[in-house]
Amino acid sequence: MTEAGGAEISPQTAWMIAVRDRRDRAAFARLFDYYAPRLKSVTLRSGTPAAEAEDIVQDVMLAVWHKASQYDPARADVSGWIYRIARNRQIDLARRKARPEPEDLMLDASHAPEADQIVAMAQEAGELRRALGQLAPEQKRLIEKAYLGDMSHVEIREDTGLPLGTIKSRIRLGLERLRYELKELRKT
């Protein structure tokens, strides 16, 4: 096969170009059939367990499909491009494994809340629900997104389409109303 410039290209490069330019599924199937066993073999030789190697191959080939528009045959041979994606996936996986997992929190009986504390917390939660019910619906919705949904103001803007200033104002006014509604709780 020859490229527009007259240079010979491999069948794999031609398949990749077809995937890139036309989203050609048949060409992608050929790429998959050609590279999947080779990627799995390389991954297994690096000491990766078989099931994990299969997952990596699937991830890599999915990335090849999604990133096909980024492939430039003038910059890299298709096999080099695909193997670089595979290498990066393996590195990402190794980093994730190296990250320490948080320890489970173990509470002993001496730190368990007393019955009166549990009742007080339940009463406070009820008061908070009542106070939230007193808010205007748009204030309540934004406060729930910000504090219960753990969303930033920017994320709320993206979710609702509201201007940032409106979001901040409604949250501020809603919090002032909640403080007013809950002032009796603060006295105790």
From TrEMBL:
Q: Record keywords: Transcription regulation included?
A: yes
Q: Which residues form the RNA polymerase sigma factor 70 region 4 type domain?
A: 127-178
Q: Which UniProt keywords apply?
A: Sigma factor, Transcription, Transcription regulation
Where, by residue number, does the polypeptide cross the bilayer? Answer: none
This protein's record includes keyword Transcription: yes
SUPFAM superfamilies tied to this protein: Sigma2 domain of RNA polymerase sigma factors (SSF88946), Sigma3 and sigma4 domains of RNA polymerase sigma factors (SSF88659)
Protein family: Belongs to the sigma-70 factor family. ECF subfamily.
Record-given protein name: Sigma-70 family RNA polymerase sigma factor
Q: Which PANTHER family match?
A: RNA POLYMERASE ECF-TYPE SIGMA FACTO, RNA POLYMERASE SIGMA FACTOR SIGZ
Gene3D superfamilies per record: 1.10.1740.10, Winged helix-like DNA-binding domain superfamily/Winged helix DNA-binding domain
Q: Entry's Pfam families?
A: Sigma70_r2 (PF04542), Sigma70_r4_2 (PF08281)
RNA polymerase sigma-70 region domain location: 31-99
Return the NCBIfam families for the record: sigma70-ECF (TIGR02937)
